[in-house]
Each structure stands twice: as C-alpha cells, then as structure tokens.
Design a protein that fits this description.
Number of strands: 0
GO molecular function, one term: metallopeptidase activity
Number of helices: 7
Protein name: Protease PrsW
Family: Belongs to the protease PrsW family.
Largest sheet: none
Strand content: under 5%
Structural class: mainly alpha
Order of helices and strands: HHHHHHH
EC number: 3.4.-.-
Membrane topology: Multi-pass membrane protein
Length: about 220
C-alpha cells in the first residue's frame, strides 16, 4: 500500500517541484500553494461523482460526448472556477509567475488523487504510463491556465476578461485534443507522442513567458 501511494504521489510532487524551482525571482508562500493543491484534490470527488451519475443515467447518447467533451470541459471548468474564486484576488497572487504555480498546483491536486484511485484499482503496472501521460498533461493544462490568469491580473496591455476566458478555453481545447487521441483505439500512441511533445513545448513556452513578465513586473516596481 505504501509503495502504491508513493508511486501515485511522486509524479505530481516531482512536476510541481520542477515548476516551483523555475521561479528564481521570488518565493511563493508554501501554505497558499498547499491550500491550492488541496482545493484541486477535493475537486476530484464531486467531478467523479458527477461523471458517474451522468454515465449511469445515460445522459449522453454518444461516448465521445461523455468521455471526451464532457470530461474535458467539466474538469477544466472546476479548476478554473476554484482559481477564479479562491486565488485570483488573493493577496499572495502578487506577480505573473504565481499564476503558473497556482495553476499547476490545483491541477496536480486533482491529478494526484485521480492517480491514487487509479493505481489502487489497476495496480502498480500502470504507474509509469500514468506519470507520463495523465499526471504530466494535467500539470501542463494547469500551467497554461495559470499563465493566462497571470496575464489577466498583471498585464496592462491584455484585456482582463479575455485573458480570464482564455484561462478556461485554452486548457479545455488541449484537454479535448488529449482525450480525443486516447479515444483512437489501437493507434493512439502514434498521435500521443507528437501531441505530448507539443504540449510540453507549449507549456514550457508559457513558463518562459511568465518568467519574462515577472522580471518586467519586478523591474517596474523597483522604478516605482
């Protein structure tokens, strides 16, 4: 049990540590990050319950609508909503890179609990693939979401409402593409490899841009 639990938690911890350590200019309070992680973890249960109820009731006529569209939209919406309500106006969200950390944190909270439940159901043999695909993809969806929240709050050039909308729309589109590829039975792996390479490139580009905006933000405040 301890080995399974460790294998389920380790990927999320490693990915979050990577994004946390990329922030060389400031240190975000760990308590707030932990709270955000827990928000994401708690979200897992109502989302899974909602998915279960709709499946049992046969709400969706087509599996694609249920397994791809609905699951992608509902998971990203709840994470987006939590960040908007609990974090966006928080006093600790005080620079552009914070969005990256909070987005990754809430996503990895969700992904970690989901991973624990999955490994306890299907065993340790799935741990490597789970770390490589669902956990890392959730982290990167969160990074993209957090980047646009950072732009919404701190960019004087970007339109706030548009950036907040992008914080939801961009991860939803990426998540739908990810789930669509998984729905291609038999040859999904040939599509997933280039997609994951793109997703990592796209996510790390947002990290780099957020770090650039952080430098600009700190430079501007020094002038003031």
């Amino acid at each position: 049990m301890i080995i399974l639990l460790s294998a389920a938690i380790a990927p999320g911890l490693a990915l979050f540590s990577y994004f946390y350590l990329r922030n060389q200019m400031a240190t975000e309070p760990r308590k707030t990050l932990l709270q955000t992680f827990l928000y994401g973890a708690f979200l897992t249960f109502p989302i899974l319950f909602l998915q279960y109820v709709l499946t049992e009731e046969g709400v969706f006529q087509y599996l694609y609508l249920q397994d791809v569209i609905f699951s992608s939209v509902v998971e990203e919406f709840f994470k987006w909503f939590v960040l908007l309500i609990a974090i966006y106006n928080h006093v600790e969200f005080d620079d552009p890179y914070d969005g990256i950390l909070y987005g990754a944190s809430v996503s990895l909270g969700f992904a970690t609990v989901e991973n624990i439940l999955y490994l306890f159901s299907f065993g340790l043999d799935t741990a490597f693939m789970r770390a490589l695909l669902p956990v890392s993809s959730h982290a990167l969806f969160g990074v993209v979401m957090g980047y646009y929240y950072g732009r919404a709050k701190f960019s004087k050039l970007a339109k706030t409402n548009e950036m907040i909308a992008m914080a939801l729309c961009a991860p939803v589109v990426l998540h739908i593409l990810y789930n669509t590829i998984l729905s291609f039975k038999g040859y999904w792996v040939y599509l997933m490899i280039p997609f994951m390479l793109f997703l990592w490139w796209f996510g790390l580009r947002k990290v780099k841009l957020a770090h650039y905006h952080l430098v600009q933000h700190l430079h501007m405040h020094k002038k003031i």
